[in-house]
Amino acid sequence: MSFFQASNALGASPAETPTRRRRIDRGIIGLAIIVAVVGLAALAPLISPYDPDIGEGALRLAPPGTPGHWLGLDGQGRDILSRLIWGARLSLIASIVPVAIAFIVSLGLGLAAGFARKPLGAAIMRGIDVLFAFPMILFAIAIAALLGPGLTTIIATIALSLVPYMTRVVYFAVLAETGREYLDAARLLGAGRSAILFGELLPNVLSPAIIYATTLIGPMIGFSSGLSFLGLGIQPPLADWGRMTVDGVGVFAEGAPHVVIAPGIAIIIVSLAFNWLGSGLRNWLDPHHHA
User: Fold this and answer.
1) Quick one: pLDDT at residue 226?
2) How far is CA 170 from the centre of its chain?
3) How deeply is 127 buried, as exposed, middle or buried, from its count of CB atoms within 10 A (0-12, 13-18, 19+)?
4) Long-range CB contacts (< 8 A, 24+ apart) of 11-16?
5) How many whole angstroms from its chain centre is CA 268?
6) pLDDT over threshold 50, residue 254
7) Which percentage of the chain shows pLDDT scores above 70?
């Protein structure tokens, strides 16, 4: 859908406008949260009150409100606020980078499959169907066995797991555009296959692909944290929110719930922010969507 189509559709129905506006407002709130978290992560060396990997044994498991430690300390006496700020870096990288990689790969595969049709398109989609048979956790275990646990394992696992889903979104978006008048007009005007593919088809396929990719980032923050929880992701002493959750579970029974609550809340808030952003993008780029 073009910008002008989206603009004209804004007044489609007075009853629909408040709902769309609320979703777009939530998208703006989500974007603001994401920008704030990215800013904190980028400025971590400047604003972090303590070294995230160095603890004070005498203050082990000190509660929130301890002088100089707003969110308390963990089981090794490390400042939780500092680890949250530094952990945002790895948590964002572990979710945004693989989604971006999967987006680029899927965009190429989906365009090729939908535009080329048989036999190339059929071969690509059959390969995608095979990937659907493998759960994400199996990818994680296999990659960890080859590369060892760590950030690379998280990125590779999430990227491989998302490619089939995102490819199908792009593929069906291409099929939905096939046969539209603007494509026929481009052919009649003498446009070549490359011009039609990249100049006409790609811009109309990007919107649903971008929206879908944005909504995936939030769940992938939780999934990457789960990999760290299982010992397949970030390894100590590095701080990421999943690793912090693992550490918090280990000391929960010692009467220190704040160690697991703080990173858990961070994961929930940022995941919701990306979901809100995706919802806002959907309602801005596709005014006819009211789900």
Assistant:
1) 78
2) 17
3) middle
4) 12/287, 12/288, 16/290
5) 13
6) yes
7) 90
The rounded mean pLDDT for the chain is 83
Alpha helices (H) in the chain, listed in sequence order: 3-9, 17-42, 44-47, 80-116, 120-132, 136-147, 151-177, 181-188, 193-194, 202-229, 241-251, 258-285
79 - beta bridge partners? 73
Tell me the C-alpha to C-alpha distance, in Å, between residue 27 and each of 99, 188, 210. Answer: 19, 40, 14
At 16 the pLDDT is 53
For the stretch 78-132, pLDDT in tens is: 999 999 999 999 999 999 999 999 999 999 999 988 887 778 888 888 888 888 8
276, 30 contact by CB (below 8 A): yes
Q: Which single residue is written with the structure tokens 């481009």?
A: 186
Q: Residue type at 88?
A: A
Task: Kindly state the tokens that stand for 71.
Answer: 């969110």
The answer, yes or no, to whether the previous bond of 219 is cis (omega within 30 of 0) is no
DSSP state, residue 81: H
3-state secondary structure string, 240-281?
CHHHHHHHHHHHHHHCCCHHHHHHHHHHHHHHHHHHHHHHHH
pLDDT per residue as tens digits for the range 159-169: 988 999 999 99
Burial 135-163 (b: 16+ CB within 10 A, else e): ebeebbeebbeeeebbbebbbbbbbbbbb
Tell me if 69 sits within 8 A of 80, measured CB to CB. yes
Residue 237 preceded by cis peptide, ω within 30: yes
β-bridge partners, 73: 79
